[in-house]
Amino acid sequence: MSDELTNVPKAVSGPSTFLDDRLGGANFLKRNMRKIFPDHWSFLLGEIALYSFIILLLTGTFLTFWYKPSMMEIAYDGSYAPLKGVMMSEAYASSLEISFDVRGGLLIRQMHHWSALLFVAGMMVHMLRVFFTGAYRKPRELNWIIGVLLLTLALAEGLTGYSLPDDLLSGAGLRITEGVAISLPLVGTYITFFLFGGEYPGDDVISRFYSLHILLIPGILLALISAHMVLMWVQKHTQMPGKGRDNKNVVGAPFYPAFMAKAGAYFLFTLAVVAGLATFAQINPIWLFGPYTPADVSAGSQPDFYMGFLEGALRIMPAWEVNLFGTSHAGTLPLSVIIPALVPMGIIMTGLALYPFLERWVTGDHREHHVADRPRNNPHRTSIGMSAIAFYGVLWLLGANDEISAFFHVSLNWTTYAGRVLIFVAPALAYMITYRMCLGLQRSDQAIISHGVESGVIKRLPHGEFIEVHTTPADDIEAHMRGKEPVLMLPAAPDGSGIPPKGMRGPLGKLRARMSKSYGGEKIPLDDGHGHAHEEEHAAVGSADDDHSLTR
Ligand code: HEM
Ligand code: HEM
What we know:
This protein is mostly helical.
C-alpha cells in the first residue's frame, strides 16, 4: 500500500471537512491520520514517559492552587495534631494542608510524586531501548540529543520539586545542593548566595525553586517534548526487523483508528497505575519528618531513586582536597565534592550525547537506519551499554550504603571500600560477560537458521540412530533473525596499496582504525547450511498479515 489516501473513514473525513472549510488543512490531517506506526512492546516505554508527564502537569497544577512557596516562619495550626503549634515555614505548612485539609489533596500529592518517579523511570528505560536498538543512528541523532536534554532537565525538575515541601528530608537534599554549588571554583559563592538569597539556608531558595519547578523547567520540557514528538512523526518510527520490513518502508497499523485507540487506552492505564499506587502505597509522608532545621539530618535519608547515583558518588569519594595557595581558604578545591557531583553526571550525559557521533566516527557508517538492531547483533554497543549500566548501578547502590550496611550487618566502611573497587571492576565484568552473551545468542540464531528449532521430539531411525526432530521456525521469526545488518568497519586500505586512507593516518587515525576493527566484532554469519535438518512441521506463530505498509 502506498501513501495514497484510500477509504478514509467517515469519522476522519467528517471533522477533516469541517476543519478544511475553516483552516484548509484537510489533506494534511487525513494524510497524518493514516500514518503508519510500527508496533513493538518496547515502543510503549516512551509513551509511559509521555503519559506520566501529562499526569504531572495535571496534578502539579492542582497542587499550585494551595501550595505557598514561602519560607516565612509560622506556627502550625492545621489538623495534624502532633505538629500543632510547631514553628515551620509556610511552604511546609501548606504541604501539610494539602495532605490533611484539602479534599483529595493527599491523593493528588501522592499521584504527583508517583508520576514523577514513573516519568523518570519511563524515560530511562525508553532511552535504553533506543540505545540498545541503535535507534539513535542517522537520521535520528537530533532526537537523541533532545532526549539527553530531556533527561537532564527531568533530574533538575525532580530535585526542585522534591525540595518544595521544605520538610526535614527535602532539607537534607537542599543542604547537599548547597554543598555542591559552593564547592565550585570561583563562581560557587556567588551561585549559592543568589540561589539561597544569602547565607545558608537563606530566605529565597523555596521561591526560586518554585519558579524553576512550575514555570521554567516544565516550559522547556513541554517545548522539547513537542519537538521530540514532531521529529519522531516526521522521520517516522524505526521498526524491528521482520517479514517484509526494510529501510525503505514502514510496516504497522495506521494512526487512526488503531494507534489512537491504543494510545488512549495506554494513557488511561498509566493513569490507573499511578492512581492505584497513590491510593495504596504511601510516598513521602512529610508529616513524619517534621519541618526543616539546618542543624538536623535524620538517619537513613534517601533521595528519590533518580538522584541516588549522585548520592552514591559523594559517599564513595575519598576526602581529597587541594589547596592552591597554601592553607588560604580562597584556594581550596574540595575534590571530594566537585568530582562526585560533576564527573559521573558529566561522563554519563556527555557520553550519551556524543555516542551516535563517536559510533559513526568509528564505523564510518553514514547510511540511514530505519530498521532497529537487535542488541545481540551489535555486541560492542550492547556491552558498552551494559558497562554504563553497571557503573551507574554501583553508584546507585552505594547511595544507600547505610541501609545496605544496616540490613546485611556489615561495616559501613566496608561497603564504601567495596564500592571503590566495584566502580572499576563491575563495568569491566559487565562488558566481558555481555560481549560473550551476545556472541552466544548470535550463534543460537545461526543454529536455528541452519538446523531449525529443537522440537524435543526424539525419533529412532530404521537403522537405529536416535535423532531430535527439528522444525522450521515460523516465517516471522526467521525474517526477524535474518534482518541482521553487519556492523560496518572502516576500509583498511581500499585500493590495496597498503596506505591507510585519509582520516586513518597519524596516532588518532591509527586508534580510529583499531577501534573500528574491534567494534566491527567477530562476525558470525547466518549461514544456511543445508536448510533445516529433519524438518517436520512449521512452528505455529502468528504472522503479521493484517499489517499495513508505507514507503518512507
Ligand atoms: C515534569 C516533571 C515534574 C516532576 C519530575 C515533578 C516532581 C515533583 C516532586 C518529586 C515533588 C515533591 C512531591 C511531594 O511533595 O511529595 C513535587 C512537588 C510539587 N510539584 Fe512537581 N514535578 C513536575 C512537574 C510539576 C508541574 C508541571 C507543576 C505545576 C504546574 C508542579 C508543581 C508542584 C508543586 C506545587 C509541588 C509541591 C507539592 C507539595 O509540597 O505538596 N510539578 N514535584
Ligand atoms: C520526556 C521524556 C521523553 C518522552 C516523553 C519521550 C517520548 C517518546 C515517544 C512516545 C517516542 C515514540 C515511541 C517510542 O519509541 O518509545 C519516542 C521516540 C524516541 N525517543 Fe523519546 N522520549 C523521552 C525521552 C527520550 C530520551 C531520554 C531519549 C534518549 C536520550 C529519547 C530518544 C528517542 C529517540 C531517538 C526516539 C526515536 C526512536 C525510534 O524511532 O525508534 N527520548 N520518544
